[in-house]
Amino acid sequence: MTKQGLVTIMMPVLNGELFLPFALDSLLAQDYPHFEIVILDNQSTDRTGEICRRYQGQDRRIRYIRDRVNRISHDAANHLAEYIEGEFCMLACDDDLWAPNFLSTLVKYLKEHPEVGLVYPNARYVVVEGNMGGVRLLSRRHIYSYR
């Protein structure tokens, strides 16, 4: 049963202890509160499981699943699709950071434009030291639109 307005955030992860807390913190800081994060741990051998269980214990919107098999990334994302409960879904990586208004902006756009089935944001590379790159990933690239 689809839950109206809910965003299911699918996060496959493998040995993500270095950046995972930052990714989760940026998702939990969203100004759109109606979301769930479903983390599929692809048999990590570092502290990923411990980190995920700690976050799950602190926020009921997080579901942690340790996979029984090791999957390549697109297989993990496909497997995560089985857990979607929301009207909307997105894929987030364990090393992604999100602006606090990311979900609210995209959900608002999708609700205002029901003819649109997919939206994708622009992005910037951020180096480990925290410096944001000046060039957006999609700058000077053509994106197709039916308008």
Key descriptive features of the protein:
147 residues; alpha/beta; four-stranded parallel beta sheet; two-stranded antiparallel ribbon; globular; disordered C terminus
Structure, explained:
By secondary structure, this protein is of the alpha/beta class. It has helices at residues 20-28, 48-58, 73-80, 102-112, and strands at 3-13, 35-41, 62-66, 86-91, 124-126, 132-136. Strands 3-2-1-4 form a 4-stranded parallel beta sheet. A two-stranded antiparallel sheet has the order 5-6. Strand 2, helix 2 and strand 3 form a beta-alpha-beta unit. The longest helix is centred in the middle third of the chain and has 11 residues, at 48-58. The protein is globular, with a radius of gyration of 16 Å. 24% of the residues are buried. Mean pLDDT is 87; it is low at 141-147.
Overall SS class: alpha/beta
Largest sheet: 4 strands, parallel
Rg is 16 Å
Give the topology string: H per helix, E per strand. Answer: EHEHEHEHEE
Subunit arrangement of the protein: single chain
- The average pLDDT score comes to 87
Termini separation: 33 Å
Percent of residues in beta strands: 25-35%
Query: What percent of the residues sit in helical stretches (DSSP H or I)?
Result: 25-40%
User: Count of DSSP E strands?
Assistant: 6
- The shape, in one word, is globular
The total of helices stands at 4
Q: Which strand order does the major sheet show? A: 3-2-1-4
Runs with pLDDT <50, length 5+? 141-147
